[in-house]
Amino acid sequence: MDLLTELLTTDFRTLDRNAADLYLAAVAQVKPDALALPTPCPDWTLHGLLRHQVSQDQGFAAAARGDGARLANWHGGDLGDDPHAAAAASLDLVTEAFAVTPLDAGFVLPEVRDGGPFPAALAISFHFVDLVVHAWDVAATIGAPWEPGEELLTAALKVAAIVPTGADDRGPGTSFAPVVPSSDGASDQDRLLTLLGRSPSWNR
Predict the structure, then answer these.
(1) DSSP per-residue codes, 187-203
(2) pTM above 0.85, yes or no
(3) Given a cut of 70, is residue 159 above it in pLDDT?
(4) Which residue stretches of the chain are H helix?
């Protein structure tokens, strides 16, 4: 079985919820004065990154309901005065939407390549890997630990391996920066980060 076929036949919903818990554990440690800090994502402060993830959760939930084509559904995230509560609410929203979506449904994802539709199983894997790596972004920004565990790392590495790496697919305006070279003997955590355009040694 090739990797893409494996991903298309894997139910990522439980993994996605576990990744959400990993992400929320990092967000729970964010203090108000940290929201203006720079993050490993050069376009975003920590506030911008957290708002982006809320927007993505809302967009994926809309896609699961068959309304993913409207760009407004992907840009309406609001942290209010409690970023952790906003993150938890948006993740509950997307978890509930995924739970009732058949895995052979089609998700329109307007910010991914040609917009799809993508099979639900694959689309959910995209949301999953974003949560795992954004959990690191948050943790790295505030100096907190990031411990995704073997199950999440193994699954995330498989998803990261199918992310296109061409010049038109990476860089400004795309989902990920270019792949960062990794050293021989790099850990699975570091390999995941470099595949998704992050330097494991990043610090603010």
Answers:
(1) -HHHHHHHHTT--TT--
(2) yes
(3) yes
(4) 3-8, 13-27, 46-64, 83-99, 120-142, 149-160, 188-195
